[in-house]
């Protein structure tokens, strides 16, 4: 009990808890409006919103560019003397990427001949990217001072949720919903900038062009891994937007959220297990293997049971969450639940086993190859079978990743056994 009390009182633990709360408000709270908004906007307009947001999140990855990790590390290492310079370099780099992203979005819209509603929605939702450019989570995380920035984000999210219920009342309020969604990011960015100036005396200043480019070079490898992860998770909606009506995109996006929520519930479990399992691997490789196996057996089993219940109750869950109109395609939840269970399994194989045991390279190789295969599967099956093809591609892609990870684990085990 004394050890637990000491751990809870540490700044690291408190900072971690505030970071965990920030993740909850950034991911779970926006889902509170989902049952309401899918009914109010209708499947077609919700599909336009989902497709627009899907494209915007690609550009969000570009502007974030891994600075959430590299920036936090530099803040914690370099100290206050160079903080203003680092602050200027990262914001300048993000503004440069912001300009490139906006140009890319307009070129994309022109080439793909997007409709007027989608183009207007994309421009409104681009406010999200502007907010991200000035988002300072990296700064407060590096300073281990997450309390205030978490509270700012929490208030911003809650205001956004309230505005959705108060002013979005009909199908023609698509643009209003886009503004409500984007406003969260702008509001939290403004408050974050004000807080950084008050606490640390930091001012928004542009640095030299070459310094911004150097900062971009430093974040290249993290950007690549994040970009691949985004492609892996969002390519289905992208392909479906090209081959199906907006209403089908809306239905798929809504139903996809049910297993996705299960993934969100697993995320804190993964974050809690990872450092513990890493310690076990540092003690001995067999002890780490045993710990992963024992944890995986119970946790995967629990989520598999939850997934089975979702499949059995799919019509009821979908009709309650989104409306009866969405139940016509309720069967797509079957491969999506399989994707969810396989994704959790792959977390144990990849993150908890390979990465925790120090074999990041092997994990990266398997993940990169699987991402390419998943994109090809989504394109081919999406064109051939529409929404059923895209949902099946998600499960098949994860199954392929599982086989690749198992192959890498067998190689690692063989190497470790030879070294004993």
UniProtKB/TrEMBL annotation:
Q: Which InterPro entries match?
A: Poly_Biosynth_Transport, Polysacc_synth
Q: Which locations, inside or outside the cell, does it occupy?
A: Cell membrane
| Topological type in the membrane | Multi-pass membrane protein
Q: Name one GO cellular component term.
A: plasma membrane
What are the entry keywords? Cell membrane, Membrane, Transmembrane, Transmembrane helix
Q: Which residues cross the membrane?
A: 12-32, 52-72, 93-113, 119-141, 148-168, 174-195, 231-252, 298-326, 332-355, 367-387, 393-410
One Pfam family assigned to this protein is Polysacc_synt
Q: Mind telling me what this protein is named? A: Flippase
The species this protein belongs to is Eisenbergiella massiliensis
């Amino acid at each position: 009990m004394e050890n637990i009390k000491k751990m809870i009182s540490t700044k690291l633990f408190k900072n971690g808890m505030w970071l965990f709360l920030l993740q909850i408000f950034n991911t779970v709270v926006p889902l509170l409006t989902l049952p309401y908004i899918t009914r109010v906007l209708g499947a077609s307009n919700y599909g336009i919103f989902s497709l627009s947001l899907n494209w915007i999140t690609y550009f969000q990855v570009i502007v974030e560019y891994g600075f959430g990790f590299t920036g936090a590390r530099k803040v914690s290492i370099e100290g206050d003397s160079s903080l203003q310079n680092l602050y200027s370099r990262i914001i300048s780099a993000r503004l440069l990427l912001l300009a490139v992203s906006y140009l890319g979005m307009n070129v994309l819209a022109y080439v793909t001949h997007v409709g007027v509603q989608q183009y207007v929605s994309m421009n409104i939702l681009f406010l999200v990217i502007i907010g991200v450019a000035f988002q300072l989570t990296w700064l407060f995380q590096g300073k281990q001072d997450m309390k205030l920035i978490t509270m700012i984000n929490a208030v911003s999210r809650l205001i956004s949720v309230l505005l959705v219920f108060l002013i979005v009342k009909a199908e023609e309020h698509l643009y209003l919903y886009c503004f409500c969604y984007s406003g969260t990011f702008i509001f939290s960015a403004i408050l974050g900038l004000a807080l950084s100036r008050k606490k640390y005396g930091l001012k928004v200043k542009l640095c030299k062009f070459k310094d911004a480019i150097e900062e971009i070079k430093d974040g290249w490898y993290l950007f690549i891994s994040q970009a691949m992860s985004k492609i892996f998770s969002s390519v289905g909606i992208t392909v479906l937007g090209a081959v199906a009506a907006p209403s089908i995109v809306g239905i798929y996006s809504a139903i996809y959220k049910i297993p996705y929520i299960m993934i969100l519930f697993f995320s804190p479990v993964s974050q809690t297990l990872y450092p513990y399992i890493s310690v076990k691997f540092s003690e001995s490789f067999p002890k780490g293997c045993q710990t992963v196996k024992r944890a995986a057996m119970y946790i995967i089993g629990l989520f598999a049971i939850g997934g089975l219940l979702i499949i059995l109750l799919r019509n009821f869950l979908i009709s309650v969450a989104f409306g009866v109109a969405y139940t016509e395609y309720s069967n797509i939840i079957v491969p999506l639940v399989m994707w969810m269970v396989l994704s959790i399994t792959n977390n144990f194989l990849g993150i908890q086993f390979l990465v925790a045991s120090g074999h990041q390279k092997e994990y990266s190789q398997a993940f990169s190859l699987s991402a390419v295969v998943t994109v090809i599967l989504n394109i081919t099956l999406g064109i051939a079978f529409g929404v059923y093809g895209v949902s099946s591609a998600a499960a098949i892609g994860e199954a392929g990743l599982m086989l690749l990870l198992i192959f890498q684990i067998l190689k690692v085990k063989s190497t470790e056994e030879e070294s004993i």
